[in-house]
Amino acid sequence: MKIIRFIILIGMATSCQTEEKSRINVMTSDIDHFWTAYDLIIKEPDSLKRIQLIDSLYIQQGSIGLKK
Fold it and tell me: E strand or H helix at 43, and its extent?
């Protein structure tokens, strides 16, 4: 009987706790930047220019989550 009371007490205590929901922001602009860079990269034969395109069009314009 004590075990049942203990389980009920724990259940009530955990259900009364309020948790602050974390804000989740989904940034879709990174997808657009990726495809813009990709379209130019596949047309560029110079590998050094490809790296510059990735950096300037995708990474530097990316959201905070992309840069982490």
Answer: none
Q: Return the axis-axis angle of helices 47-54 and 29-41, rounded to nearest 10°.
A: 170
pTM (predicted TM-score): 0.60
Helical (H) or strand (E) element with 36: helix 29-41
Closest to 33 measured CA to CA, from 60, 59, 67, 58: 58
**pLDDT tens column, 24-68:** 777 899 999 999 999 999 999 999 999 999 999 999 999 988 877
Q: Which residues contact 29 (CB under 8 A, 6 or more apart)?
A: 61, 63
